[in-house]
Design a protein that fits this description.
Radius of gyration: 28 Å
Helix content: 25-40%
Shape: globular
CATH architecture of the largest domain: 3-Layer(aba) Sandwich
Distance between the termini: 63 Å
Number of domains: 3
Number of helices: 16
CATH topology of the largest domain: Rossmann fold
């Protein structure tokens, strides 16, 4: 931090640009081993070192010159970490939080804003364990010079240093307005001291427990892939959440499997939900939505203490709902809807889908995207899409909608399972392979009883002729662009309410229920912008040519894995937050599917 302190001391106390800080100038003096010439060499690198820990400064964006992004790089071996691991990064982020909170406690003054007091901003995760730019691992070269006086450095000569693995923790530091001495103290004393304290308090036993849990979670996921089960909920899990939080509810009833469905996976006992069609029913406030919410949460790993650590679900699962008003482009929805006037449901497009057409499109896109499990709650579904009882069948003879009850078994035979929460229709009891009734947050297997009730009431299974489930469409370069006027400035903004604004698009993402953090929304904006940037030249020169979206997505996620999640960040946008969590490929595809300006085309078009 010696060089950083000298750079800060040379600055004007009332500066607002902090150019010298971001440039990070250093001098290699003349007549030294690394520079035997007669003239000193000036180079630039805004990476500053405190012992073996580096602090890399970058601009957050043009309106936040006084609130830089600081990537703190801690040698992994100093934390007892041998290899890059998402769970280890998540653990460290949670462990460093108290030390950063303590810094903010010293700065806090309720009579003044953070811009006057100074502040340290950092990512504060919920229960999910996700790849995020708030804490991740990267490999880079260690410090390769000795500090001299001022900003002079003496690079090592003839000393080869191997690259090292570093834990990178992203922090934003708000400088106190026109208080240079306090800024210097925050950067060169407060922050390094907090990081040193965090390293010194490294708890190898706690880390070991976290890594063991992560290995257990991955083992269960692998076991599910090759089993007859699509989800697993460990006995003792706490599924209900405290009011208005994502924390486990205190004094909640621990989950207990039914005797018939209790299995053991990787040494853990719990309930296995078999592939096929599963119905969860029960009275109001019995816990049926809580159960399906826990199954949905299981697509992500959760941290120790969340209560759902060992709720593991097929990672391809997609939560399906009706989504009135969404854009649909060139989607085959014919398995569910046919005979719409002036519309081809084998190649269906609309700027404002109805409840039934949107739910049909959501299912078809999910299946085409590789989903092996659909999660559906009737409360979020279009009634005319889900069911049609006998009276309505007798009354309406020319109905273009084939209800989901008539397709759910066909989907199951194609390898796509469904878990449904149903409280108002008995038709699903006839097609279900397994039926659970929730009683005071405990599941009871009522399959045999429900089948008997259906038989006594004459409720029979209904099937339709096999459908064409294929999708034949491609995305064109034209319209897939973050420039609203092609040659103008880019546009990207994200609203935490669930709207992503990019290029000429305002995309409503509130119907994507598997986006579980607002930081995933911001990541989706940057990731979509990254894809669009690659396509920019094509959008101008080859507007009507398709491009390989799958190949671009593969390359994007491979680069995130190799370079770290922060590579998609761009400081050119002032309304997108600095911290983000990387979503699944499923959610990124879902965003693209909802674009209105994007151009899709049937592959049959010659």
């Amino acid at each position: 931090m010696k060089r950083l302190k000298n750079i800060l001391l040379s600055m004007n106390e009332k500066t607002e640009a902090f150019t010298e800080l971001y440039n990070g100038a250093y001098i290699i003096p003349a007549h030294c081993e690394a520079n035997p010439g007669d003239n000193s060499i000036v180079e630039y690198d805004p990476t500053y070192w405190h012992g073996d820990v580096f602090y890399y400064f970058s601009e957050t964006h043009k309106l936040a010159k006084d609130c830089p992004s600081v990537t703190v790089g801690i040698p992994a071996d100093a934390l007892g970490i041998e290899e890059a691991d998402i769970a280890a990064a998540d653990f460290c982020l949670r462990r460093i939080k108290p030390y950063l909170d303590a810094l903010n406690d010293e700065l806090y003054n309720r009579a003044r804003p953070a811009s006057e007091n100074g502040w340290y901003y950092f990512c504060e995760p919920g229960g999910e364990v996700l790849l995020r730019n708030g804490a991740y691992f990267t490999t880079r070269m260690p410090k390769d010079y000795e500090n001299g006086s001022g900003i002079t450095v003496y690079p090592y000569v003839g000393k080869e240093l191997p690259p090292k693995l570093y834990l990178c923790v992203l922090i934003q530091v708000q400088f106190p307005y026109h208080k240079l001495k306090k800024t210097i103290k925050m950067l060169t004393y407060g922050l390094p001291q907090a990081v040193d304290s965090f390293i010194a308090a490294n708890d190898s036993a706690a880390l070991k427990r976290v890594l063991e849990l992560s290995k257990k979670q991955q083992a269960i996921r692998e076991a599910l892939k090759n089993s007859e089960y699509c989800a697993f909920i460990a006995n003792g899990s706490i599924l209900p959440r405290s009011k208005d939080t994502d924390l486990p509810m205190r004094k909640a009833v621990p989950f207990k499997s039914t005797d018939e469905d209790e299995i053991e996976l990787c040494g853990v006992r719990g309930m296995g939900i078999k592939r096929g069609v599963t119905v969860i029913t029960g009275g109001g406030y019995s816990g049926k939505s809580t159960l399906i919410d826990a199954i949905s949460a299981g697509i992500y790993d959760h941290c120790l203490g969340d209560g759902r650590e060992l709720c593991i679900t097929d990672s391809t699962a997609v939560t399906i709902s009706a989504e009135d008003g969404r854009s649909v482009k060139c989607v085959n929805i014919s398995p569910f809807i046919q005979g719409i006037p002036n519309a081809d449901t084998f190649n269906f497009s609309t700027d404002r889908a109805s409840g039934s057409t949107s739910q049909a499109a959501n299912i078809m896109e999910a299946v085409d995207g590789g989903a092996r499990l659909l999660l559906i709650d009737e409360d979020r579904s279009a009634t005319n899409f889900m069911i049609r009882d006998g009276a309505m069948r007798d009354l309406i003879k020319n109905e273009p909608i084939t209800p989901f009850t008539e397709r759910v078994k066909e989907l199951s035979e194609r390898g796509v399972s469904t878990v449904l929460v149903i409280g108002g229709s008995g038709e699903y009891l006839t097609v279900a392979d397994k039926i659970y009734m929730m009683e005071s947050f405990e599941p009871v297997d009522v399959t045999a009883k429900a089948k008997q009730v259906c038989a006594e009431r004459g409720i029979k299974e209904r099937f339709s002729a096999p459908a064409d489930w294929s999708q034949k469409r491609r995305l064109l370069a034209n319209g897939f662009d973050s420039h609203p006027n092609v040659f103008g400035s880019e546009r990207l903004a994200v609203l935490d309410l669930g709207v992503l604004m990019i290029g000429a698009e305002d995309i409503d993402l509130r119907g994507l229920h598997d986006i579980v953090t607002s930081r995933q929304l911001h990541a989706l904006g940057f990731m979509l912008r990254s894809l669009m940037s690659q396509n920019y030249a094509n959008a101008i020169t080859k507007a009507l040519e398709p491009f390989d979206l799958d190949k671009m997505l593969d390359a994007l996620y491979e680069k995130i894995a190799s370079e770290g999640p922060d590579f998609v960040y761009s400081n050119g946008f002032t309304t997108v937050k600095r911290f983000f969590d990387i979503p699944r490929r499923t959610e990124l595809l879902a965003v693209i599917n909802r674009m209105r300006a994007a151009r899709f085309e049937s592959e049959d078009v010659g």
